[in-house]
Prior knowledge:
The structure is a single chain. The strands form two sheets. The protein has a five-stranded parallel β-sheet. 41% of the residues lie in helices and 15% in strands. The protein has one domain (4-162): 3-Layer(aba) Sandwich (Rossmann fold). It has 164 residues and is of the alpha/beta class. The longest helix is centred in the last third of the chain and has 22 residues, at 141-162. Helix 3 (45-57) crosses helix 4. The protein has helices spanning 11-22, 35-43, 45-57, 75-86, 141-162; strands at residues 4-8, 28-29, 62-67, 90-95, 118-119, 122-123, 130-131. The chain is globular, with a radius of gyration of 15 Å.
Amino acid sequence: MARKAFYSFHYELDNWRVSQVRNIGVVDGNRPASDNDWESVKRGGNKAIEKWIDSQLFRKSVAIVLIGEKTAEREWIKYEINKAWNEGKGLLGIHIHNIKDKDGNKTSKGKNPFEDIKISGKLMSDIVKTYDPGWLFFSSAYEDIRDNMADWIEAAIKTRRQHG
Length: 164
């Protein structure tokens, strides 16, 4: 049975890389918002954005934060992380800087967004695992994610259960 995942990411900068991860097909993911949908949601203000995120997280077993160069700076990424954790969902991060964009370029590695969030006085980065696929010269980031994401998800769900 495929897990149902919510993908958290910086839309403007990382949409192309994220689409590559989504196409791997290891999990059933949330439907990505089109530019028009997202603009409509944003016009509704913070409450509308929260409601949209909450609906996207509904019935998902895991939240996967796809970490690009500036993901950690995004206010809504932090909201999504906290919401997923508070709802008892598995949570993990995958750095995507080694996945090429539509022009064949990679980007700089982004900061771990879990380093900025505390849960019960502990840094979330001490609990939630992040992965940096493709750092070895003999594997591509795409292949690394494809071959390991299912295991990473199960580990994240197990970790979340251990932390009540």
